[in-house]
Amino acid sequence: MRPVRITRLALAFCFVVAACGGQASSPTPVPSTAAPSPPAAAHSPTAVPAAAAPAGPPTAPSPASGTPDGAATPAIGAATRSAPASPTAGSGPTGPTAAASPAVGSALPATPPIAQTASADWTTYHRDLARTGVAVGPAVPASARGLWTSPQLDGDVYAEPLVVGSRLLVATEGDSLYALDAGDGHVLWRTHLGEPVPRAVMPCGNIDPVGITSTPVVDPAAGVLYAVAYLQPPHHELYAVDAATGDVRYHQPIDPPGADPLTHLQRASLTLSRGNVYVGFGGRFGDCGQYHGWVLAARASDGARVATYQVPTRREGAIWAPPGPTVDAAGNVWVATGNADSTEFDYGDAVIKLSPELRPLDWFAPSNWRELSARDLDLGSTSPVLLDGGLVFQVGKAGTGYLLKADDLGHEGGQAFSAPVCAGTGAYGGVAYAPPMLYVPCRSGLVALKVQGTSFSVVWTGPGFNTGSPVVAGDTVWVIDQSTGTLHGLGAADGQPRQQLRAAQPSNNLPHFITPTVVGGRIYVSGGKTIAAFG
Question: pLDDT for 478-501, tens place per residue?
């Protein structure tokens, strides 16, 4: 199947002739490419006056979950290497084709190259490999307002919007990648990678359809956007796309070896480090079928798989947290796993430290891992957070926070410190870290912790709502209420409400665990099938 790229001019052309729809299936290039009817022009979202937060937590949507499959207490699993495979440049899942081309032929003006990245660019989940979620550059105005809402895109946006220069790069469950103009939200290009997989095809799950769920990653120096798409017939592909033009440079299959793509979900954000793209896998909501947690490393230059790590559970042990793998200064890869179904410890509900080559180096598990697994209380509903002073923070569905020593994780029950964080609820998504403060997305409201030495204490608990994943910009923490679609600005020091902005209409169907992006004093956030900008 041939990836389809639609540029801004092509969209205008479609508007004039009203003839865009469908997708070319022949490997032979065709003069024009069908595309969806043009969306409405971008418009300004509605600002909501700041007000006291609602009393008590609202009903939370169902979390995604993940689990393991196994043997009797193995080591931590084994890293394996794969022979390099030849990349397939510009081809789709049905075989090689020419690279994607504009819908109206080759007469379009060349798209200007992406500008060199600045330190403020947001090229990966929560901006950096440590997943801190801290913005740099100009502050968001004290009285931010709605600037624009994008045209409706072709699917829900679970992924965090990425920003390079003046472009927003957005991935959808419709299996499309978009570049939006950061200034006014109009579509610069769209590349449709293939057809997403309907929920009815899979044995369980709560996303319909499933296309691109994870946050992609950008290499700004190379000008390449990497994304994993779930395509029909059901399988996962790693795509490298030109970030300036949307042209597909290559794509390669990326399903774990021997794994059933019907039971594996690629939700964890992609990580780019030392020339490799790291891809995490877990199970679908409902924990159906035979699946494991996996991390795969693919060479960024051609997509060839170079290493794999399988969580050595009897079943389950998902690596599904939205932030994806965290990477330290030495290039080591940190992941946390979901529940396992074994009564013997096999690395479900654990923090695992891997080498850049995905060799297991160390691990930690709470002493009550059996209870966590039995109750589907994944430790790995967030990713490990790497702190100053050689510490690691982890919190999961049970709501207990753990401080670990990065050079000695302590194995079972070996934490340096632990204490309750989320009162009667759990944490899901990405934690933000602005030393010495941690901002934890509890289902009952955002919780701020202060790390001192080898312990932490609760500084404040925010208004009671079902929080998405927070980010920090200056003296304000930005987080979305996933039940109402309201973006909240809370004082980083005291949690007091400062601003409320309407990012989406109230809905119980917003994508789970969404997180804002803050660049250049502007906030960008998913509203479902649109992106809203504030500043």
Answer: 999 999 999 999 999 999 999 999
* Contacts of 399 by beta carbon, 8 Å cutoff, 6+ apart: 420, 421, 422, 423, 424, 425, 426, 427, 442
63 phi and psi angles, rounded to 5 deg: -75, 155
Phi-psi region at 51: left, alpha or beta (left = phi > 0; alpha = psi -120 to 50): beta
Place of tokens 């891809």: 279
The tens digit of pLDDT for each residue in 153-202 reads 999 999 999 999 999 999 999 999 999 999 999 999 999 999 999 999 99
Note whether residue 195 is domain-resident.
Answer: yes
Distance of CA 205 to the CA centre of its chain: 17
Is 48 within the bounds of a domain? no
CA dihedral 309, 314, 319, 321 (to 10 degrees): -170
- Cα separation, 220 vs 225, whole angstroms: 8
Q: How many domains does the chain have?
A: 1
Tens of pLDDT, residues 103-160? 222 222 333 333 333 468 999 999 999 999 999 999 899 999 999 999 999 999 999 9
| 99 occurs within a structural domain | yes
Sheet of 455-461, strands arranged across: 432-434, 437-442, 445-452, 455-461
DSSP 306-351: EEEEE--EEBB-----TT--EE-TT--EEEE---B--SS-SSSS-E
**Would residue 122 count as lying in a domain?**
no
pTM (two decimals): 0.82
Instruction: Give the CATH number, domain containing residue 285.
Output: 2.130.10.10
List the domain range (segments joined by +) for residue 331: 4-19+65-107+138-534
**Token pair of 142 as six digits:** 């004290």
